[in-house]
Write a structure and sequence with these properties.
CATH class of the largest domain in chain A: Mainly Alpha
Order of helices and strands of chain A: HHHHHHHHHH
Number of domains of chain A: 2
Number of helices of chain A: 10
Radius of gyration of chain A: 21 Å
Low-confidence stretches of chain A: 1-9
Shape of chain A: elongated
Largest interface: A-B, 42 and 42 residues
Distance between the termini of chain A: 50 Å
Structural class of chain A: mainly alpha
Number of strands of chain A: 0
CATH superfamily of the largest domain in chain A: Tetracycline Repressor, domain 2
CATH topology of the largest domain in chain A: Tetracycline Repressor, domain 2
Mean pLDDT of chain A: 88
Oligomer: homodimer
Strand content of chain A: under 5%
Chain lengths: ~220, ~220
DNA sequence: TATGAACGATACTGGTCGGTATCATTTCAT
DNA sequence: ATGAAATGATACCGACCAGTATCGTTCATA
């Protein structure tokens, strides 16, 4: 409910923010993001954030309207960074197998990173209290990855060796992208989230390879 | 740390539990399961559980050793029930497509049920505090489903129309089962967990159908 | 039925936390 | 420079909560 708007009572949102104020505001958000991601909403107290970031609780109410506003701002800022390596991967000119393998590796490495796992855990627990954040996570996560896969698939299938075939219905490509995403991420992510140790390099590579082989089989069989 | 053992201090664990006591013990666990699953560990107070279930806080310490013990007992009891319809599904004698479709439907319906979603959300948030529960969830969830798929695949491939082929390496079948599981559950489960409305019947059926088609393509191509 | 253990209700304790109030200090526009 | 606004530090309030203590009531067994 509370964004960056002013608090209901007490200190008003400043109309003329100081340079120092802006720095404190940013510092609070960064520190809060670390702590919230690591230990969840209820696991972190405002006093702890203030102690680690400097400033005072007064700032939190002036800048973010309260604990909930700070949480939303901190998480939203952290969301975009998780899949950065995937969206920035350059796959132009790569053949189907090579490009999918590279994208799949980037995805699984991003998803199994400690930060992504912690963010996932924190967000899923707070989707009830902050529905907007849940939707934002899906958009910045699975939806973004699938779009990246679909973009590459469309190019690779249009320009591939079997270019004589149908160029690939967009919806068919979207399904393919979704299946690939799920085959790469599904099980390894679940295990990383619920068990203690995430999968090692070999297991990740094997999962990606299996998913790539499956997509190739689907492509070869498509009519 | 605390199972059903006695509390560290205060009232000791009774050596001769009364009939009424047993009933209260069960009622506490059932009510606690509902509340914990719905609102998480921190979201429920002992007073609330006691008020809803009858009995008194004293029982919680006598029977379960404290809040953590009650949480573990309640969640563990709830774990086994989620995938009941999947493990009880009878697929003997069914062909590949029909059996996979039935199993896939059972899986997705179980995973998207409100109870399973709430349990998933609660557990994932508490995996840090209760690692044992996270592992138990994976074992009772994905691992169980995959085993069910693998069992059916082994039978179907051995007895199928193309029985003349290799009977199917067990590890190959396990990979196939994992891929099928992930293709059925992955995206729809993510969306249900993070967005507000779970997918409808049509979308579920489409996801299952796509996964079944993919498995058929893989089976046809295997060598 | 008598008796000791198990159980239920309730109040209390020590601690934590979100949010507010207060006041001293710093910043910046004039 | 100067004063009004912004910021920092701190104390405080009310609410909540896990866990304990106490005592009256109920049950099971002998």
């Amino acid at each position: 409910m509370a964004g960056e708007a002013g608090a209901s009572t007490g200190r008003r949102c400043p109309t003329r923010r100081t340079g120092r104020g802006q720095a404190t505001c940013d510092r609070l958000r960064r520190v809060a993001a670390c702590l919230f991601v690591a230990r969840g909403y209820d696991g972190v107290s405002l006093d702890e954030i203030v102690q680690a970031a400097g400033g005072s609780k007064t700032n939190i109410y002036a800048f973010y309207g309260g604990k909930e506003g700070l949480f939303v701002a901190a998480i939203e800022a952290a969301l975009g960074e998780v899949l950065r390596p995937l969206t920035e991967a350059d796959t132009r000119g790569l053949a189907l197998e090579e490009g999918l393998t590279r994208l799949g590796q980037a995805l699984i490495d991003a998803l199994l990173s400690p930060k992504a796992l912690a963010l996932h855990r924190t967000l899923i627990g707070e989707t009830g209290r902050f529905p907007r954040l849940g939707a934002a996570w899906y958009a910045a996560g699975p939806a973004t990855s699938q779009a990246a896969f679909a973009g590459f698939l469309a190019r690779a299938l249009a320009a591939g060796e079997d270019a004589g075939r149908a160029p690939g219905d967009p919806s068919e490509i979207a399904v393919l992208a979704r299946l690939f995403h799920d085959m790469v991420a599904g099980d390894l992510q679940q295990r990383a989230l619920f068990e203690t140790e995430p999968a090692g390099v070999a297991e990740r590579a094997a999962a990606v390879a299996a998913a790539v082989r499956a997509v190739e089989a689907l492509v070869a069989r498509r009519g």
